[in-house]
Amino acid sequence: MKKTILVAVALLGFGISFAQEEVKSVADVKFGVKGGMNLANIVGDDAGDANNYVGFNAGFFVEIPITNKLTFQPELIYSAQGSKSEGTVNVEGTLINFDATLKLNYINVPMMFKYQVVNKFSLEAGPYVGFLTSADMKVKASGFGSDTVDMKDELKSTDFGLGLGMNYEFSDVIFANARYQAGLTEIGDSEGGSNDIKNSVFQIGLGFRF
Asked: Which of 108, 172, 188, 197 has a Cα-to-Cα distance from 50 of 20 to 30 A?
């Protein structure tokens, strides 16, 4: 966990240093915090009938203006993701109903570019890298109770993808953000297992500038 945080902070610092070379005044750089709700799922040939999992995201960001309309925004975000599924299995002739919840916790480092389309409204796009901190599968079966299994060894420690979103400015301090994060790499890492799964996360929330 500590190593993951150090790597994520290093990436964030690299992004800030790179962008500041284009900034005319350090006073133009703004810092802030943001948070909101995740509507997450896993997709892919091996995802099965996975359903949405409701989680949350929270972290901080830096706004670095490149031009009057273009801003570079690196972020460091804790993100609770995953999926839910339910169904029936046949165990020695007995049908058993089950519910399964996959909980994936990441520290994500988005590197977003925001372009102001009109006053108070901007579009954003950019890559992200995610570092898996924990992964658990909780299964509840009728007549058998529930159990939780550690799935971290079955998944890759990093995730790469692309974020697309929009922002609306309520004021110089508060803004609303909606973003879709599409995982571009498979996150499964089991030998001979079902590895064709990717993260898919829709986020909505608020940001606050200092």
From this structure: 108
Name the residue with tokens 């301090």: 173
Is residue 179 within 8 A of residue 163, CB to CB? The reply is yes
- How far is it, in rounded angstroms, from Cα 19 to Cα 22? 6
Chain-wide mean pLDDT for the chain?
Answer: 88
Place of tokens 């200092």: 210
Taking a C-beta distance cutoff of 8 angstroms, is the pair 66, 72 a contact?
A: yes
Question: CA–CA distance from 44 to each of 21, 133, 149, 183, 194 (Å)?
Answer: 40, 22, 22, 10, 10
CA-based end-to-end distance of the chain = 28
d(C-alpha 21, C-alpha 191), whole Å: 45
Q: What residues form DSSP beta bridges with 177?
A: 167, 205
The C-alpha atoms of residue 164 and residue 16 are separated, in whole angstroms, by 20
Q: Write out pLDDT tens, residues 63-107.
A: 999 999 999 999 999 999 999 988 777 776 677 788 999 999 999
Structure tokens at 168: 């609306």
pLDDT at 92: 67
Residue 180 tokens, joined: 């879709």
Confidence at residue 198, expressed as pLDDT on a 0 to 100 scale: 96
- pLDDT at residue 98 in the model: 83
